[in-house]
Model the fold of this input.
Amino acid sequence: MPSPGLDRFPTTTEASISSLSRPAPRLALHDVAVRPMPYGVHGALLQRISTRPDGPLDITWLAAETPQLPLGRIRLRWEPASRSGWDVTTYLGLTTAEVLLGSWPAAPDDWPRLVRPTLYEVTGLCAALSFATDALDLSNRLSGV
Done:
């Protein structure tokens, strides 16, 4: 069943993941995390995570037809738990697949605060790996390998 009002938010599709010419508007995760995800949404794409422990987490909705996540990107899914709270799952985009990053069953309503450390660490590791890969590629090109 769709959530009132939330189903009107634009979603991120394949075109806007690969092209930043017209990205979907960012939403503060804390503002939408206490309601079920809108109907027709595959999850939420993590767009930005603040360096402050209490800082914002920004997301955009991913349309159901969105393909595999790009390398290093994080998708969140949440739904009401059977008794109370939220069942939260996160996925990480790798070169050839999406892998389960973490799962928090029956998380409390302030679950963004609970999953934030994992998201922050993984985002930092992905950025460091990307930087190291680029440096290695440049080094190889300069040395003629």
About this structure: The mean pLDDT is 83. The first strand starts at residue 11 and ends at 12. The beta strands are 11-12, 27-28, 41-49, 57-63, 74-80, 86-93, 98-107. The chain is about 30% helix and 30% strand.
